[in-house]
Amino acid sequence: MAGERKYIYRFGNHALDGDASMSAELGGKGAGLAEMTLLGIPVPPGITISTGVCRFYLEHGAFPTDFEEELGASLAWLEDSVGRKFGDPRNPLLASVRSGAAISMPGMMDTILNVGLTRESIHGLAAQSGSLRFALDSYRRLLQMFGAVVLEVPKKEFDNVLETIRADEAALRDSELSEAGLQSVIEGFHQAIERCAQTSFPQTAVQQLSMAVHAVFKSWRNERAQYYRRLNGIPDDLGTAVTVQAMVFGNVDQRSGTGVGFTRNPSTGENSILGEYLANAQGEDIVAGTRTPMPISELAESMPEIYEELFAITGTLERHFRDVQDFEFTVEKGKLFLLQTRAAKRSALAAVRIAVEMVETGLISSSEAVARISPATINEILAPQLDFSQGVPEVLARGLPASPGAAVGRIALTAVAAAGALHGDPVILVSQETTADDIHGIVAAAGLLTACGGVTSHAAVVARGMGKCCITAAKDIFVDSDIGVLRIGEAVFHEGDWLSLDASSGRIFAGKVPLRAADGENAGLRSILRWAIDQSPLAVRANADTPEDASAARARDARGIGLCRTEHMFFALERLPHVRAMILARNTPERKRSLNELLPMQQQDFEGLFREMSSLPVTIRLLDPPLHEFLPPRKDVDAELLLARSENDAGAIQRAELFLERMQALSETNPMMGHRGCRLSITYPEILEMQVRAILQAALKVAAEGFVPLPEIMVPFVASAEEMQCLRRLIDEAANEVFANHGESIDYSIGTMIELPRAAVCAGAIVEHVSFVSFGTNDLTQMTFGFSRDDAGKYIDAYLNQGILKSDPFATIDRGGVGGLMELAIRQMRARKPEIKIGVCGEHGGDPASIEFFVSIGVDYVSCSPARLPVAQLAMAQTQPLRRIAVPGQEHVSQC
Amino acid sequence: MAGERKYIYRFGNHALDGDASMSAELGGKGAGLAEMTLLGIPVPPGITISTGVCRFYLEHGAFPTDFEEELGASLAWLEDSVGRKFGDPRNPLLASVRSGAAISMPGMMDTILNVGLTRESIHGLAAQSGSLRFALDSYRRLLQMFGAVVLEVPKKEFDNVLETIRADEAALRDSELSEAGLQSVIEGFHQAIERCAQTSFPQTAVQQLSMAVHAVFKSWRNERAQYYRRLNGIPDDLGTAVTVQAMVFGNVDQRSGTGVGFTRNPSTGENSILGEYLANAQGEDIVAGTRTPMPISELAESMPEIYEELFAITGTLERHFRDVQDFEFTVEKGKLFLLQTRAAKRSALAAVRIAVEMVETGLISSSEAVARISPATINEILAPQLDFSQGVPEVLARGLPASPGAAVGRIALTAVAAAGALHGDPVILVSQETTADDIHGIVAAAGLLTACGGVTSHAAVVARGMGKCCITAAKDIFVDSDIGVLRIGEAVFHEGDWLSLDASSGRIFAGKVPLRAADGENAGLRSILRWAIDQSPLAVRANADTPEDASAARARDARGIGLCRTEHMFFALERLPHVRAMILARNTPERKRSLNELLPMQQQDFEGLFREMSSLPVTIRLLDPPLHEFLPPRKDVDAELLLARSENDAGAIQRAELFLERMQALSETNPMMGHRGCRLSITYPEILEMQVRAILQAALKVAAEGFVPLPEIMVPFVASAEEMQCLRRLIDEAANEVFANHGESIDYSIGTMIELPRAAVCAGAIVEHVSFVSFGTNDLTQMTFGFSRDDAGKYIDAYLNQGILKSDPFATIDRGGVGGLMELAIRQMRARKPEIKIGVCGEHGGDPASIEFFVSIGVDYVSCSPARLPVAQLAMAQTQPLRRIAVPGQEHVSQC
Fold first, then answer.
1. CATH classification of B257-289+300-343, choosing from 3.40.50.1360, 3.30.43.10, 1.10.1740.10, 3.30.470.20?
2. What pTM did the predictor assign?
3. Which residue in A669, A818, A824 is closest to B790 by CB distance?
4. Which residues of A touch B472 (CB under 8 A)?
5. Closest CA to A431 of A418, A422, A444
6. Regarding the domain delimited by A1-118+204-247, which CATH topology (the fold level of the hierarchy) does it fall under?
7. For residue B32, is it left (φ>0), alpha (ψ between -120 and 50) or beta?
8. A383-516 adopts what CATH topology?
9. Complex ipTM
10. A450 min Cα distance to partner chain B (Å)
11. N or C: which end of chain B has fewer CB within 10 A?
12. Mutation for testing the A interface, residue in B483, B668, B670, B720 having most A CBs under 10 Å
C-alpha cells in the first residue's frame, strides 16, 4: 500500500479502513459498507477506490502512478479474504463494480455484476456452485450488463437475441431457457458486442475490472449527470468512488435469494419492516418484475433464522444511523449478506410519522425531527391530492401551480354561474382571469383555473388566502363565457362538465380523477409544528381579512395578524352599494355620508378580529386598491344605459350617464401604478379617518369586554417620508378625536409598507415617522422588475425555460434585485432607528427559500396566508437566525 | 465711532466707508450708493446701518450697546455734510429711510421719505425751499408713508381723508389742493393715526428715525418676507441693512423733477436709454400714474445739461457694473442726483440681444454672456406666445403646461377629424387622452389639449418631440367625441369652434387670442447657443425618430442622436398593415414573412438617419411598446365583427374573430409593466433580428456612399444581466450574418437602457455586457414611484399643492429617490467598467435643474427632443462639470 496517499479502502472480513463519516472519499455506498463492517454486520468483503482517484483521473486522463500497485495489493487482500482468485479458471473470484458519489446521482453508471467471469472460468464457477446453468446464466448477465454499460451496445440488441432464442425454445422467461439455449444466447451476445462495439468482450478478469472502473469514472462526465448536478447545484469536481465487492449469489439455489426493504413503511411511516424477497434470484430479477417476489414478512416462516438475523441487523442499522433505512441483502446458500444501506426516501406523511415516533422513543431530538421535514412537501398532507394510484390520466393542459392542492368539480365559466350552481356538486371556476368582482364565485368554487395571470395574480392570491387550489396562466385554454364554452387545446367543454385540477403540479385533466382527502388534523404534523414554533428564531404571522380567517390563523398558532386587507371587507355584497355611493360622490360631504354608513360595518369586522387575536398584534392596512376596482364591469353599465334609453327612463339614463362619466374619470391605464394606497388617503382623507375611527372604536369596545387588542395601523404604497409624515398626522388627529369622544384611549402603533422602490431607497427618512414597517414583496417585485403580475405569465415561462430567470420572482424572492433593495432599506432603517420592527407580508412570506433570505437580512417576522402557515412555520424553524449587523456605509448590493 | 466693530457706513460728499463688494453688509442699495460715490457720481450723502445690526437686533431684541453712540456720530457727519440739522426747526435735515437686503425681497418695508419733518419744522422747510405748499405737502407725504408703514394704519384711512377734502375743494388730484386744503389733510391724517395706532405721530426727528429703523428690521420677519425666503431658499439669518439718506426734492419747483430709466431697452434690448421723467414731482408720483411723465429722451431738449450729465453717468454705471442698469434720479433746482442703480430685469429677447452686443463691444466675455441667459426663459423666443398686450382674457380652464408655446385654432375632437379638417385653419386636437394611434391627428394639429395624462403622458411626449404646444391634465374639460361636444366647465364647444392655448402657463381661452410668432432664427440666440456648446463640459444629443427630426436636430447642433424610437416608424400608415400581420401571426414563419416586408422600410429610415448624422453617434432603440399598442381600438374591431355578422360574411367573421382572440390574448392590465421592451426580443427574437439587419444593412449602404454611420444599438427595458447577455448574443449573431452576406463589416456598439429599478440595482452586473447605457428616466421615475405617467395627473396636483412633492418628478428629476438609484447604478458601473459611456434620454434630458443633477453624478451626455435642444444646451453650459469619483463602498443615498 502506498505511503502517505491512500487510494483504496477495504471493508468486510474483519478488515476496515474507513467509516460512515468518510462519504466524501468513499461515496455513499462505500461509506455504508464500511460502517456495516464496523457494526459487525455480514457484508461480502470488498474495496472502495476513493473519489480522489476519480478526480485525479478526470484531471489527468490517467491513474496516479502508484495507484496500480495499491490496487494490486488490495485485490490480493480481497482474493485472500474470499479464498478465490480473479481470473482463476477453476476457482474464479467474481465481483460487483458500482459507482458511489457522496450524493446519489441519477445518470451515472450504476452496477455491473459478475465481473471477472470469462469463457474459461465458466466451468470453474459451475464447479463452485454445483450448477452449469447458474454459471452460464451468470456469464450471460455479465455480457449483457458490461456490454450495455461499458461498451455502450444498445440494449435492444441483447433483447433481440433473447427474444429469438426464447421463441425457438418456446420459453416464457429467461429462467426457462435450457443450458443449450443459454449457450446460444452467449454466442449471440458475443456477436452483438463485436458488431456494435467493434471489439470483443475482454477475456481477462483484470481487463474487465479496469474497463469497468474507467467506465464509472467517465460516467461522472456524461450529459445526464452533468445536467443533474447543474440543476441541483452539486459541484462538478467532487468525483465518484468505485466499489469492487466480492459477489455473493442469490441465484445459486433455492436456499439463496435476494431482497430489498425499508425498516419502516415509507408511504405511511408505520414502524414495521416492509420489503420483498425473491428466492433463487439476483437483484435485477426483482426490478425486472417477471417473477413475483414475496413480502419480507413471509421469510419469518420460510427462513426463520434468516428473518430474525435480518430483523436484528436492520434494527441495528436504524438505531445506528438514527433514521429509516433502505437496505439490500442477499442470501447465498442460507447465509445472509447485507449489500447496501442508506436513508430511505419517504412520503411527507411517513416522514412526519417517523420523525415524531423517533422523538417519542428518544432516538432523535425534536429539533432533529423538525429539521427532517421538508417544508415544501407538507402540502401533500395539508391539501387534498389527486389519487394517481390507479395511473395518471392524459394531461389535457398545463398552467402554473399557483395554489397547491387538487380539486375535482363541474365547470363554471363565470363567477355568477359558480355562485349560483344548483347541481350541488363541487365547482371549478374557469375564466380568462378573475377580478375583485368575482369574489363570490371564488368563495363558491372548489378550485380555480385561469388562462392568464401568474402565481401572484388576483386569482392566485385570493385562492392561496382561502386555501383553495388554483392553476393560472394555462395558456392553452380559451374561455368564451358568452356561449358557455371552454376550449382546452382541441377539446371542447361546456358548463357543468367535470374537470380535475392537480394544482400542486399545474396539470389539468378531463373528467373525474379520484381525490384523496387532506389530513389537516394530522396529529404528527401538529407535534412537528409545535416544536417548530418553539424553536423558531422569529415569528410567523398570518394574513387574515375576516374573523373567520383570524380564527383559522390562531388555530394554526399564528403569532398575530401581519396583514388585514380592509378592502376585502368592502366587497361584501351588502356593503358594495355604500362603497359605490362613496366613490360616486361628487363632493366631500356626500362622500362622508356614505362613509358613515360603512363605519359601523368596518368596526364590527375589526371587533371580531381583535377578539380572535386578543393579546396578539393585528396589523390593519388602510384601503389599498384604486377605487375603480369597486365599480361594476364597464359592459354592465353600458347595458344598463342601453336599457334605460330603450325604456326612455330619464332618471335611469341620468344615473347611468353619471356612473359612466365617473368610471371614465376613474379608469386608469396602469391601475397597479395608479391612484391607490396612501394616495387615496392624501386625496380623500375622509376615507382614512373613517377607517381609523372604525379600528380604534373597535379596539376600545373589545378592550371594555376584557380582550386585549393590539392594533397596528399600516399605510400602504408610501413613496416618500413627506407622505408618511402627513398621514401620520391625519391618523393621530383622527385617533385623538376618537379618544376625546370616548373619554378613554388605547395604545396603537403606526407603520408603513415598503413596496415601492422609492420607499426602499428612502427608507431611512421614512422610518422616522413609523414604529414598524412591512415589506410588501409582491408589489416591490412588480415595480422593481416592471413585471405586472397579472400579465407576466405571458412571458415568464420563456424566461424560466431559457434560464434567464432561475425561478419565478413572484414565488421565490429575487435576492439580487428585490432583495438588494430590501437589504438597502433595512440597513438604512436599522442605522436610524435600531428598534424598528420589520416584517414581510407579501406572498413570499410563505415560501421557504424566501423565508431563509428574509431571516438572513434581519427581518423580525413574516406573515403569510393561513393555509401556508405550517409551511412557513416549519421553514422558519429551519433558518439560521444569523442577523447581520447593519453597518452604514457598507457596500450594500452583493447578490447581482 | 466704535473701535473694532463697525455698524454704520457713510457714503456721498467725498466720504466713503464701503463699496459694491460689501453687499452682504450694506445690502444691495447701500452697496450701490457706496459704489456710485466711489465713481464720483453725485449722490445725496447718507449712511447705511449694516445687516449685522439687524442680525443683532433680531437676536437680542435691542441694538448693540455702542450702536447709539456710533449712530449719533454718523448723523452728525451727515448733518455737517448737508449743512442742515435733524430736528432743527429753521433748517431741518430730512432723510429717506430704506431697507436693503443683499437679495431684493418683496414684502419687506421699502421706503419712507421726508423723515425728520415735524409740525415745528414745516416752516423751516418752507423757508429753505421758498414754498409753504411744498413744505406742507412734504409733511403730508411723511404722515401718510410713516403712518401706513411704521404705525400700520390702513391705507384707506388716508385715502378717505384725501378724497373728502379733494371733494370739498373740487380738486381732481392732490397737487391741486390748496394750502388750506393740505392743512386740513394733515389734521385728518393726525387724527387717523391717533385713532388707528393709539399713538400720536412722533414730533422729534430722532424718534422718527429710530422708529423707522425698528420698522425696517422687524419687517425682515413679516409673513410675506418669510414665505418668499422659504420659497427661494434664502437663509433666514441674513438680515437687512437700513440706508438713511439726505433728501433731495424733485418737487420743489419746475427746475426740479424725478425720473427712472434703463440704460438699454429691457423689452427689446435696443442700446438706447429708456425711461421717464416727471418735473416737479417725487418718485411716488410717477408710480401713482396721475400725471403723465415724459420720455427721458425729451430731457435732451428741455434740460440739455442734465441730459448730457445723466447720459454720461449711466454710461459709466453700465460700463462699471458691466450690465444694463435700472436707475433712479432726482433733479433738485437744476442739480442732478442719482438715488439708486441696480442690474435691470429684462425679457428673454432683450437678455439675449444685450448679452451678445456686450460681447461684441468687449464689455463681457462670451462665457459671461452664456451664464446670463436663464435656460427656462428662452422658450419665450423659440415658441409662439399669446400676445396679452391688449389684456388677458378670462381663463376658461387650466391644465399642466406639458409642452411650451401657444396655439390658436379650431377644435377637433378626434385624430381623424384633426387630420381631415378641410377648413384650412389651424386645428387644436382636444381629447380625453391620446394614444399612439392618434399620431396623424397630432401631426396635423397646431396644439394639443387633453383631459388626462401628465407632463410625460403620450400627448406631452409626442408634442414636445414635435415642438408643438400641449396642455394635459385639464381636469375641467370633458370630451364627448361621439356627439362632437367639448364641455369646459359650464361652457360648451363644438368641433370647429375657436380655442386658444397658452401652453407655457397651462391656460385655456375661448375664441381667438392674438398670437405672437416664434423667432427661431433669432441671430443673437444662435450666437449664445454656439458659445454654450463650445463651453459645454458634456454633449447634448437629440431624440429623433425620422430623418426630418434628425435634420432639425443637426441644424440645432445636436452632438448625435441619443434616442431613436423605432416604434414610431411602425405607426406609419403604409406599414401598419404589415405590423399588424406580424402581430397576428400564429407562428414564427408567418411572423418572419411580415417582418421581411417591414425590413426594407425600416432600413430606409435608418439610411436617412445615418446620412443626416454622418460622423455622429446614432442610438437606435429596439422595439419597445407592447404589441397591442399597434392594434386598432377594441370597439373598432367589435364594430367590424358586428357588420360582418349582419352581412353574413363568413370570411370576414372569421378574420374579425381571430383578431379579437389575438387582441384578448395580447391585452394587458398594466401595459406599462407588460410584455414590452427586450421581453419582446426574448419571446420573438425574429423582431430583434429584423431590426438589427435593417440597422446594419443601412449602415453598410450609406458607408458605401461615403457617409460615416456610427450605429449604437440600444436594448430597452432590461431588468437583468442574464437578459442582456442573451440579447447581446442574438444581436452579434444577426450582425455577423449580415456581414457574412455582404462580405464586409462595420463597427457598431451595443448598449442598454437603465429604466427599471432592478437594472439600477444590478447595473454593475449588466454593464459587463454593454459598451454604453442610457438612463430612461421617464420609466425609471414611473417604476420607482409606482406612478403611471398616464394616470398620475389625477393626484399629482394634490401632492404638489400639499407640498408633499416639491416638483413634478416627471418634469424635474427626483434627486432623493430616482436620483439615488441613478447614483447607485453609476457608482457600480464606473467601478466595474470605468470607461462605460453613460447617457440620459428621458424627458428630464431637456430640463435645466435635472441636467445640473445629471452632470453632478457623472453622466457623459443627455439627449432631449430637438425642440428642447437650445434649453438643454444652455443649461449644460451653465453646469459645473464636477464629476464625482465613484468610490465603491461609499454610502450612496444622500438626498433622502
1. 3.30.470.20
2. 0.80
3. A669
4. none
5. A418
6. Dna Ligase; domain 1 (3.30.1490)
7. alpha
8. Glucose Oxidase; domain 1 (3.50.30)
9. 0.79
10. 13
11. N
12. B670
